[in-house]
């Protein structure tokens, strides 16, 4: 079945460091791919998405590119801030089926 | 739009009691999802509805859990009887079905069973 794998956390970075959170997926066909963010005490919020191969989603300085050849959708940000501390979830959608990864906790230290 | 609305936001109950969690999806969305989140198990899909019909309830942990969607604007998740291991944050999410539409999550209900 469809699945999403993320790098294990927690990830701890200093402010202004470069961030990469790896995400790979297994699915038949051409799923849509998403990154969600969950701040403490809140629900998940959509961060960005990409709907076809080579699409790049971007929002709030975060970017991810849909790589069909490597079945990946890695999340990147050039300079993280303390306010980016949260849990990040990679997800795919194929038809009506949503599949979420286990989440990666990011802590950014001042 | 008000977003997905869940109530109550916090629930504390004693073991053996019935618990009912409520969700109002975003108007016009025709898919609704119930999730459970714990530190140990992460985010788990319990059940989802499409056009008010349950499509996949394979994630419902056991018969103590039941979910209904009597109309397009309301859903409930009921636990009877509740147990301490049911303590978790329960999220409701809604979306348009098909296509590339994303899910929108509610703020969650934090359930504590003592």
In words, what does this structure look like?
- The complex is a heterodimer of chains A (110) and B (114).
- With 110 residues, chain A is mainly beta.
- Chain A has strands spanning 3-6, 11-14, 19-21, 23-26, 32-38, 44-50, 56-59, 62-65, 75-77, 86-94, 97-100, 104-109.
- Chain B is 0% helix and 54% strand.
- Chain B is globular and about 40 Å long.
- In chain B, strand 5 and strand 6 form a beta hairpin.
- With 114 residues, chain B is mostly beta strands.
- In chain B, strands 2, 4, 5, 6, 9, 10 and 11 form a seven-stranded mixed beta sheet that branches.
- Chain B has strands at residues 5-7, 10-13, 19-24, 31-38, 42-50, 53-56, 65-71, 74-79, 88-95, 104-105, 109-113.
- At the A-B interface, strand 5 and strand 6 of A face strand 5, strand 9 and strand 10 of B.
Mean pLDDT of chain B: 94
The unreliable regions of chain A are none
Largest sheet of chain A: 6 strands, mixed
Assembly form of the protein? heterodimer
Q: Rounded to an integer, what's the Rg of chain B over CA atoms?
A: 13 Å
Distance between the termini of chain A: 41 Å
Assign a percent range to the helix content of chain A. Answer: under 10%
Q: Estimate what percentage of residues of chain A fall within beta strands.
A: over 45%
Distance between the termini of chain B: 36 Å
Stretches of chain B where pLDDT falls below 50 for ≥5 residues?
none
- The helical percent of chain B reads under 10%
Instruction: Indicate the radius of gyration of chain A in whole angstroms.
Output: 13 Å
The number of helical runs of chain B is: 0
Number of strands of chain B: 11
Class per helix and strand makeup of chain B: mainly beta
In one word, what is the shape of chain A? globular
What fraction of the residues of chain B are assigned to beta strands by DSSP?
over 45%
Strand runs of chain A, count = 12
Return the structural class of chain A. mainly beta
Indicate the mean pLDDT of chain A: 94
Approximate shape of chain B: globular
């Amino acid at each position: 079945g469809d699945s999403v794998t993320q790098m294990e956390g927690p990830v701890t970075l200093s402010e202004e460091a470069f961030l990469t959170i790896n995400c790979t997926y297994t699915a038949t066909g051409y799923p849509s791919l998403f990154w969600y963010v969950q701040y403490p005490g809140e629900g998940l919020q959509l961060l960005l998405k990409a709907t076809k191969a080579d699409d790049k989603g971007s929002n709030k300085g975060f970017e991810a590119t849909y790589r069909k050849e490597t079945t990946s959708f890695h999340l990147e940000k050039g300079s993280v801030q303390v306010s980016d501390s949260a849990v990040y979830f990679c997800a795919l959608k194929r038809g009506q089926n949503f599949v979420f990864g286990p989440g990666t906790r990011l802590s950014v230290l001042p | 739009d008000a977003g997905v609305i869940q109530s109550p936001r916090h629930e504390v109950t004693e073991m053996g009691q019935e618990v009912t969690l409520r969700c109002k999806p975003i108007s016009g969305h025709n898919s609704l999802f119930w999730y459970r989140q714990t530190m140990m198990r992460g985010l788990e899909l319990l059940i989802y509805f499409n056009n008010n019909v349950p499509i996949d309830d394979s994630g419902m942990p056991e018969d103590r859990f039941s979910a209904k969607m009597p109309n397009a604007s309301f859903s409930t998740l009921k636990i009877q009887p509740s147990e301490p291991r049911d303590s978790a944050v329960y999220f409701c999410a809604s979306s348009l079905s098909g296509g590339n539409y994303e899910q929108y999550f509610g703020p969650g209900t934090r359930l504590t069973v003592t």
